[in-house]
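Researcher: Good morning. I'm working through a list of sequences from a screen, and I'd like to move beyond sequence-only analysis. For each chain I'm collecting a predicted structure so we can compare shapes side by side. This is the next one on the list. No need for commentary yet; just the structure.
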Amino acid sequence: MRSAEQLRAARALLDWSQDQLAEKSGVGVATVRRLEGQSGKLRTYSETLWKLQAALEEAGVIFIPEADGLGPGVRLATPAG
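Model: Good morning. Structure tokens for this chain:
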């Protein structure tokens, strides 16, 4: 995850509130709000990004890197079964 747009989109795919993301990631809700208020590349500690991304990926979000002239994105994994 590199951008605030990816963070907001990932949370929206899961229909999570900022409070839920904060709880599931162990990151403060004020930090989630601050990061989602940014645009472009996220500016924070790498540990914070790791915690957020890990929580979102555990819930089924796949982060798509920028490639072939297309910007980065997110999508949901296919549910098992």
